Amino acid sequence: MKFIDQTIIQVIAGNGGNGCISFRREKYIPKGGPDGGDGGDGGNIWIKSNRNLNTLIDLRFKKIFQAQNGQDGLSKNCSGKKGRSIVIEVPIGTKIINYETREIISDLIQHNQKILLAKGGWHGLGNARFKSSTNRTPRKRTLGTTGEKLNLQLELILIADVGTLGMPNAGKSTLVTIMSGAKTKIASYPFTTLNPVLGSVLYNTKKFIIADIPGIIKNASQGIGLGIHFLKHLERCKILLHIVDIAPTNGSNPIDNIKIVMNELKKYNINLYQKPIWLVFNKIDLLNKIDLMKMVNEIISILKTKERYYLISSIKKIGIKALCYAIIQDLKI
């Protein structure tokens, strides 16, 4: 299934039905009086979160949602039927934005959270409502009101406790797969991860959700590569794991790679940049202990970072348990 995390839709609530002007006419009853009924209310448009959905692909082709109009009132004091309402189901984490005003209407972060998007029109009143001691034959009614109409932008932002970021081929997908068992594509070429992937990590009866996004490269903030488009999926994360290839085979330098990722993150969103970011040095099995610690100390010294750092090898499963334990302790699960 293709991952769609943004779409624009139009919602149109139903109009209220008009009131009826009618008079009771039966044999032997010359003055039956008014009996025009009220119209029915127009249908509403609701939106509801569903944990079983993980993409907005169902809304990619259906762009207009229109509820049913209320039925007009009838004679014999019969009210018109209410219009049928519509419920739009979306994944948890969907943000609803008014397309014109850019106002955030709601953020659906819980299962079965239900929000009214567009209210149906109010029913009109029939002439039976206007009968009085001074007006026995009222020829007055009211019309139903128009239902609300909105253009909305829906943005899906995945809900995860922990997010990964880093250069392509740093080992993010391998780490997420080892930790959670999530089915992510792993290969030796860049951008094997094309869409965000969520994994559930269970460690010592404690559980947290981890997100994997495509790698970030230089000038990603200008639209190059894939990662910048999916960085928004890290906004809800409490911890970010910056996965660093400690022994790159492409001739790059780990320090330069770290600076590139952090610079692009800062350009994209300063709030994301200021989140707790742990350096996770991966592929430590490719270096001997002396060279490894020399490299790590040099990186920490040059970057002058006070954030935590961890040494792991996803392939050899070295340091994974210690990393999971640290995450659980920090999240206070």
Name the features.
Spo0b-associated Gtp-binding Protein, Chain: A, 6 helices, 24% strand, single chain, five-stranded mixed beta sheet, 2 domains, six-stranded mixed beta sheet, alpha/beta, 14 strands, 333 residues, Rossmann fold
Descriptive notes:
By secondary structure, the chain is an alpha/beta fold. It has two domains: 1-157, GTP1/OBG domain (Spo0b-associated Gtp-binding Protein, Chain: A, Distorted Sandwich), CATH 2.70.210.12; 162-331, 3-Layer(aba) Sandwich (Rossmann fold), CATH 3.40.50.300. Helix content is 18%, strand content 24%. It is built from six helices and 14 strands. It has helices at residues 172-180, 227-230, 254-268, 270-273, 289-303, 320-331, and strands at 6-12, 45-50, 64-66, 86-91, 94-98, 104-108, 114-118, 149-156, 162-165, 197-203, 206-212, 239-245, 277-282, 309-311. The strands form three sheets. The chain has a six-stranded mixed beta sheet with strand order 10-11-9-12-13-14, with helices on both faces. The protein is rod-shaped, with a radius of gyration of 30 Å. Mean pLDDT is 89; it is low at 186-192.
The tally of helices reads 6
What is the structural class? alpha/beta
CATH structural fold name of the largest domain: Rossmann fold
CATH homology superfamily of the largest domain: P-loop containing nucleotide triphosphate hydrolases
What number of structural domains do the residues give?
2
Write the element-wise H/E pattern from the N-terminal end onward: EEEEEEEEEHEEHEHHEHEH
Report helical residue fraction.
10-25%
Largest sheet at a glance? 6 strands, mixed
| Alpha carbon gyration radius | 30 Å
Strands of the widest sheet, in order across it, are: 10-11-9-12-13-14
Oligomeric state, counting identical vs distinct chains: single chain
CATH architecture of the largest domain: 3-Layer(aba) Sandwich
Poorly predicted segments: 186-192
